[in-house]
Design a protein that fits this description.
By secondary structure, the protein is α/β, with parallel strands linked by helices. Helices cover about 40% and strands about 20% of the residues. The chain binds pyridoxal-5'-phosphate.
Length: about 400
């Protein structure tokens, strides 16, 4: 049996998969079993922030797992404590953290924090959380319900937990807030929803409103966190101080890890929340090294240079292809090009692959680019050369 047959017989059919078989990875370049190489403008959906086959992360993981991989959260875990300290240092916030294994799970933690806060801090119960249309917060039963995209609320999985409501526009959020609302949960730059950044003044207005009205502001930074925008957190870029922030994707460089952090440090007591794997030696040691690498790249100016270079290439590509694209969107290395129609997007996506370039779609009409933050100038050049070839025949 070949890989496709083994996969189809034994793995649940939840992904529309491409059966390329990647064998080697080096920074933003992947090589398949037929020795074809691909430039990776996806980072495995914003995950491989430090590139494929990163030597420093590999050495850190090897050293850690040849000693201690896992002990359980019943004992102190040094790399976990150091990672939390590092995240506070890089973000400039003073928060306490809980480590989970994914973005959805980090958001579950955020929702639990908000609900407990609403239970214990007011005379009457507050539990409702307002989110945005087009938002994406995860795939668990609660986080699909928290996601504002209608297509995610399939009857197949109902009933869902209640307490979530949505509005399509940021300035409409205010209308759904009532006496039972405890929190507003948003992405600052919607990822799956179309690489859509919100205007800074609108976010600052919302943050001030939440503060004045005793509402918690939850920022889902699962995709934007760990320098994706050029700043450690998008919340830093927007100059706000959320009550709760969640991270995952890029922080582990490929090792599964998520994090929920809050300035309400005393909200949880032992027994309120937990995870068997969350924050173990393996994932936190890896994540700490990933953040060390990214911190150094930011400090030395390398990250900003990469962003500027990628930006120039993207702008030039966009300007020479305005017959296909009508808008360029995104911030830092979280970028998108809006395509005129869904069919054209599918063609570009497929042609890119055939020309040795991995790209992503977001929503129906956005070509999404999330390269590793360590991508080289040569890889950026080669990627855009391949993208030009991909669109030339359309
Ligand atoms: C990917 C993503 C999630 C879900 O993360 P998982 O690790 O897949 O559970 C949640 N929120 C946002 C903004 C995301 O981009």
């Amino acid at each position: 049996m070949n890989l496709e047959q083994i996969d189809k017989q034994n793995v649940l059919n939840t992904y529309a998969r491409n059966y390329v078989n990647f064998k080697k990875g080096a920074n933003a370049t992947l090589t398949d079993d037929k020795e074809n190489n691909y430039i990776d403008f996806t980072s495995g959906i914003g995950v491989v922030s430090v590139g494929h086959g990163n030597k420093r992360v590999a050495d850190t993981i090897c050293n850690q797992v040849s000693n201690i991989t896992h002990i359980s959260n019943l004992y102190a875990i040094e790399p976990q404590a150091l990672l939390a300290q590092k995240i506070n240092k890089l973000s400039g916030y003073d928060m306490a953290m809980f480590f989970a294994n994914s973005g959805a799970e980090a958001n579950e933690g955020a929702i639990k924090i908000a609900r407990k806060y609403g239970e214990i801090n007011f005379d009457s119960k507050k539990y409702k959380i307002v989110t945005l249309g087009h938002s994406f917060h995860g795939r668990t039963i609660t986080t699909v319900k928290a996601s504002g995209q209608k297509k995610m609320h399939s009857e197949n999985f109902s009933p869902y937990p209640d307490g979530f409501s949505y509005k399509h526009k940021l300035d409409e959020l205010y209308e759904t807030i009532d006496d039972q609302t405890v929190a507003v949960m948003i992405e600052l730059i919607q990822g799956e929803g179309g690489v859509q950044p919100f205007p800074k003044e609108d976010i600052q207005k919302l943050a001030a409103f939440c503060k004045d009205n005793g509402l918690l502001l939850i920022i889902d930074e699962v995709q934007t966190g760990a320098y994706r925008t050029g700043e450690f957190l998008a919340s830093n870029l927007y100059d706000i101080e959320p009550d709760i922030i969640t991270m995952a994707k890029g922080m582990g460089g490929g090792v599964p890890i998520g994090c929920v952090m809050t300035k309400h440090k005393d909200i949880f007591e032992p027994g309120d929340h937990g995870s068997t794997f969350g924050g173990n030696y393996l994932s936190t040691a890896a994540s700490l090294e990933v953040l060390n690498i990214l911190d150094e790249n930011k400090d030395s100016g390398v990250l900003d240079e990469t962003i500027i270079y990628f930006n120039e290439k993207l702008k030039a590509f966009y300007e020479s292809n305005t017959h296909l694209f009508y808008k360029e969107v995104g911030i830092g290395l979280m970028r998108g090009l809006r395509v005129n129609d869904e069919e054209t997007l599918t063609k570009i996506y497929n042609n890119a692959f055939d020309n040795g370039l991995l790209v992503l779609k977001a929503g129906k009409i956005t070509l999404r680019l999330l390269p590793p933050l360590t991508i080289s100038k040569d890889e950026i050049d080669e990627g855009f050369t391949r993208l030009e070839k991909a669109v030339a025949s359309i």
